[in-house]
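Example 529.
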Amino acid sequence: MGLKGAFARHASNTRRSLAKSGIVAAVFFIVFISVTLFLIDHQRTQYQHKIETRTQKFAVNYLDNLQEMMQQIMPLTGKSCEKVQSDLTYRAAFTAGVRTFVLVKDGFAYCSSATGNMMLGMSYIYSEIDWRKPLDMALQEGTPMVPEKPAVAVWLRQPGPSNTGILATLDLTLTPYLLLNSRDRDTPGFAIVIGNHAVTTFDSNMMPLAKLPERYTSQVAVPGYPLSMIFYHQSLTANDMRFTVLGSLVLSLMVGVLYYYMQILRQSPELALMRGIKRNEFFVEYQPVFHTASSTIAGMEALIRWQHPSEGRIPPDLFIPYAESEGLIVALTRHLFRMIVADIPQLAQALPRGAKLGINLAPSHLNAPSFHDDIIELLAEVPTNHFTVVFEITERGMVEEQNALEEFDWLHSQGVEIAVDDFGTGHSALIYLQRFTLDYLKIDRGFVNTIGQDTATAPVLDAVISLSKKLQMLTVAEGVETAEQVSFLQERDVNFMQGYYFSKPLGIEDFVAFCQNNAAFDYQAAVNP
Ligand code: C2E
Ligand code: CA
Ligand code: CA
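Predicted structure in complex with C2E:
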């Protein structure tokens, strides 16, 4: 179908193009949505990973600094609370995130930066801290001093046998940097885990580890400390979906429409034809025309051919009328002239002097502004001492084109001859042709076909032949296919014959070979063996 159908109907197959465009748009939609969602997810994961490492670094840094500070305070553990308390309070106040520093000696907390003198068993304050470890941490809902406020305890033991060291209580709400990260729009959740407890960004209360939500997490340890962090990743949100679907929908719609127009354009016979000229998809075939009396080749008719790369051969009966109706015939005919001119050297070798070079002319070309220039250009390239150019114009064209009479005169003045093509098929009064001085009548093959047949049109052939004689024109019978037709036409003194009986239209190489082998076609022998 495709182009051929398009030529036949002069309209492209809209339905099929629409369906194809729909499929293209749908495929684009699916691919685009998948790729976009994948990219969003991928980018988010990468970003998340960056936040994780940054937070981890921050935590390590913070705890290292804290530890260093605690080491500096360590020498205070031997001294009385009265002496050191102001120093201790000062240090606590200027260490970010620290609620209190507590000095511990021999298992008893005896001095707090917040409350001064005290005497409490360490295990009473933080039951979960392992005091024997050089460093330990615990997470607790509150302390006896500040209940109901999640606190992180950091225990730093002084090396030695006695349970002596420093206990720092960190205010989790006062660790803004850690929590700031978790408020990042791409980090929907965050938890700090110490032992079996966790503080999270989605609950102000402490949570047992077992109760933490499990999905979309990655756990990051803080090296050197009994602490880890859990990050809750964001999966694709409803908003992601909404925007992606909407965007893809709009884009695929555009793609579909674009594809549709591309198809229409590609199927456009007009474009295909012009492209065909540019890409040399056209070529010429030559069909020999025989002199009836001498049985020698009198000349040939040039017939244009179109070998489309995907549609195959497109018959001239389809594209010539189309080219005429769309105003492309002049461009096409000029192209034909160029192709014939290119073959002239070979044609001149194959054919004797005086040979007729028949070229079909579309009637509308006669009124084209470039008509004279086109013809003059062609004739400049054709050796007129060797060939006589014969333009074949349909009877219909002669009657319908306004300036036909003047143009025929002009053509004659240029030394060319004129043949009435498809004679007998037009609706015009034949007598009308008397006004013109024309050289040949090509009897349409529809009449030649009736020879030997008992049809209603059969007698018309005789009438056509006798009329052409009365008009004093030479006759050419086209579409001669059988020996019976040959002898019939001989008897009626038809001057020239052309048809498959002698030869089909041939490419230039084959045509030259044919001429060399059949300089005198022995059809007499074929007819009267
Ligand atoms: P047409 O000018 O009447 O051309 C003769 C047509 O009859 C050609 O068809 C030719 O191949 C075919 N033919 C020749 N001998 C026989 C035969 O023995 N039996 C049968 N059945 N057919 C035979 P084609 O080449 O398909 O051309 C069709 C029409 O297209 C032509 O009719 C002509 O009107 C137009 N055409 C072809 N080439 C050109 C061209 O270069 N320029 C213009 N303007 N029209 C062309
Ligand atoms: Ca013709
Ligand atoms: Ca014809």
